[in-house]
Amino acid sequence: ACRLPGYASHQVGVAEELTNVISDCWFQTLNAWKFPGGLSELGENIATAVREVQEETGVCSEFLSLLSVRQQHDQPGAFGASDLYLICRLRPLTYSIDFCTEECLRCDWLPIAELARTEETTPITSRVARLLLYGLERGWGAVDLPMETLPAVHSGRFYQLYHRGLPLA
Amino acid sequence: ACRLPGYASHQVGVAEELTNVISDCWFQTLNAWKFPGGLSELGENIATAVREVQEETGVCSEFLSLLSVRQQHDQPGAFGASDLYLICRLRPLTYSIDFCTEECLRCDWLPIAELARTEETTPITSRVARLLLYGLERGWGAVDLPMETLPAVHSGRFYQLYHRGLPLA
Lengths: 169, 169
Prior knowledge:
- The structure is a homodimer.
- The first copy, chain A, has three helices and nine strands, in the order ββββαβββααββ.
- The first copy, chain A, is an alpha+beta fold.
- β9 of chain A pairs antiparallel with β5 of chain B, so a sheet runs across the interface.
């Protein structure tokens, strides 16, 4: 279940939030809670999030929305290229945890409020936990970027587009 | 000014909206208005948008916010990898147009309402024009994903993070 990317310049990794309670990992190098996530494989899309959650935690889930985009440059392991990470909100379909011991030391469901409060985490995890708390209080429409599929006129292919919700035309 | 990417798996192209009026191109293959944009070079970040607008249109601008993320798979020219495109909102600093004739046949400032209405465009351009109209009517806070810089705890490096605005902590 633990893997190296076969091919990447801009890596698209995906982390996930699970509604109400959150599946997290306690990493050896950090001693910090963070969301499960990892790199897309070639041709993979946002479904990466669902696969990575299952591989790292054993939890099955489905995609709900995009929450945030993270960009970092000159990251170790990114082969000198910049790193683009999509942070998604997922709905859990199962709850029992069977985690990848090569990737993390602990894995558990945490209340979002606890994750937003703890100092045993990274600045970005903390920020996303606050974003989730805000969504819980104000409705997910305040934080979600829904996914829509639109046609590419010249090729007959389709795009996935994420942006703030619009009122119906 | 016209270029092929030297290295790419996930391409990060960037298109832009310019507040109130929009700089657009009429492409030979499409006969359609679309936003200027192109591929990031290695190590480049969101500043790609500013560079590409200047190369394609001659207009100088500065970054304001991220508006949308587009993902497409198996795109021609993407070397078999999926394609990730960040759509940004920019503020123009200059207005006179000097466009790249290898990349487009026409280039002009269009009122956003006209771009949202015309059929001589692509579905995604049309959609982003509607998103901009909504931002003009309701305030940019309704559509913007502001950029913030957060520290990476383990490396001393920094991330750029984009998500819906949060109330002050």
